[in-house]
Amino acid sequence: MFSLKFLDEISNLYQCHCSLCQKATGSSSCSSFVVGIDGIKWISGRKNITSFTKENGFQSDFCKTCGSPVTNKMSIGEYIWVPAGLLEGNAGISIVAQIHLNSKASWEVELENQMTYLDSPSNIEQFILSLKKSKK
Ligand SMILES: [Zn+2]
Q: In angstroms, what is the span from residue 21 Cα to ligand 1's centroid?
């Protein structure tokens, strides 16, 4: 486990759909924001953070004990990349930009064409069935 504090104002978020973010998150995209190099302060658990770097320089840092991706220094400029999942509660922000759409997963489609749920589907069997039925 770890905890950190944000010293900079938190901006709105962007979602990156590049193939590296797909692999790093195991999903379609990564929601994140950027702070200045002095924009965060580690409170605890920094020793639990480990890192892996690909040959092309793509770096992914994560907590050894809870598996969460954490902040890392960006390769361009004096900035720190922050995954949005680190935020607690309502930060008063939203996703306002989508990047690397040229690389988005073939199975990713616009939200208006999808079944949406405010919470978990109430009936899991029905939900699984509807996933199968809506296949094109
Ligand atoms: Zn990306």
A: 4
pTM: 0.83
pLDDT digits (tens, 9 = 90+) for 81-131: 999 999 988 888 999 889 999 999 999 988 777 777 888 888 888 888 887
Q: Map out the domains of the chain as residue ranges.
A: 3-107
**Distances from the Cα of 7 to the Cαs of 29, 45, 92, 118, 129, in angstroms?**
26, 18, 16, 31, 46
Residues 83, 30: contact at Cβ < 8 Å?
yes
Q: Which CATH number fits domain 3-107: 3.40.1650.10, 3.30.930.10, 3.40.50.2000, 2.170.150.70?
A: 2.170.150.70
Distance 114 CA to ligand 1 centre (A): 23
CA of 133 to the centre of ligand 1 (A): 31
The Å distance, Cα 101 to ligand 1 centre, comes to 10
